[in-house]
């Protein structure tokens, strides 16, 4: 996580509430909503059992989760908390402009 302290002395003559409003409006474009489908990995034993019943690609139920993140690079790198994407089988990022983008966890 990143914390910033805004210096109002660098913005002499501009009221601090106006400075905060400008910074907030600018930073808001980088905030995204993250929608996740989470699932459990099948153990080898469960895969073997499912195969014995003729299921080649067995699936377990998924559950929905969500959180927020921040775009930190022009290439589309997004930072979020680990618990938001832990166990994700699919990840979708929704921008402030309501664009829905598929994503994947890289680390």
Please explain how this structure is put together.
- The protein starts with 15 loop residues before the first helix and ends with a strand.
- The protein is 24% helix and 28% strand.
- By secondary structure, it is α+β, with helices and mostly antiparallel strands.
- Strand 4 and strand 5 (100-103) form a beta hairpin.
- The protein has a 5-stranded antiparallel β-sheet, with no helix packed on it.
- It has 3 helices and 5 strands.
- The longest helix is centred in the first third of the chain and has 13 residues, at 16-28.
Structural key phrases:
5 strands, 107 residues, alpha+beta, 24% helix, disordered N terminus
Q: How many strands appear in the DSSP assignment?
A: 5
What percentage of residues falls in helices of 4 or more residues? 10-25%
Broad structural category: alpha+beta
Order of helices and strands: HEHEEHEE
Q: Which descriptor suits the 3D outline?
A: rod-shaped
Which regions are unreliable across 5 or more consecutive residues at pLDDT < 50?
1-6
Question: Average pLDDT, to the nearest integer?
Answer: 81
Number of helices: 3
Strand content: 25-35%
| N- and C-termini, Cα separation | 15 Å
**Largest beta sheet: strand ordering:** 3-2-1-4-5
Largest sheet: 5 strands, antiparallel
SSE order and pairing:
Elements: H1 16-28, E1 31-38, H2 44-52, E2 63-71, E3 78-79, H3 82-85, E4 88-94, E5 100-103
Antiparallel strand pairs: 1-2, 1-4, 2-3, 4-5
